[in-house]
Amino acid sequence: MQHRHAPARICPSCDGFASASITLGGRDRNGQRRTITAHCRTCHGTGTVPPLRRLLETAADSAFTRQGARR
Ligand SMILES: [Zn+2]
After folding, report:
1. Is the pTM of this model over 0.70?
2. Superkingdom, according to UniProt (predicted)?
3. Does a structural domain hold residue 32?
């Protein structure tokens, strides 16, 4: 059985619930509840984070590039 390749992971900080409406309390002039929408800081409201593999490869690439430039 093959592993399915996941293009993106669910954000661990918000479990995919990247934005939430927060009731501030009180009502405005029209009688509507005052709310703000908060976005997850980790995924910036997308609910997913890049695959770890890609992050590691990017880090490795920059490390090797730096090493090579010193010679
Ligand atoms: Zn998130």
Report:
1. no
2. Bacteria
3. yes
Above 80 in pLDDT, residue 26?
Answer: yes
What local confidence, expressed as pLDDT, does residue 1 receive? 58
Sole residue written with tokens 């976005």: 39
Residue 53 in domain: yes
Residue 13 forms part of a structural domain: yes
Instruction: Give the Å distance between the CA of 13 and the centre of ligand 1.
Output: 5
Q: Among 18, 14, 19, 11, which residue's Cα sits nearest to residue 51?
A: 11
Number of structural domains (the chain) is 1
Residue 22's domain spans which residues?
9-70
pLDDT recorded at residue 3: 63
CA of 66 from ligand 1 middle (Å) equals 31
Residue 1 in any domain: the answer is no
Helices H / strands E in the chain, number of each: 1, 4
54 CA distance to ligand 1 centroid (A)? 18
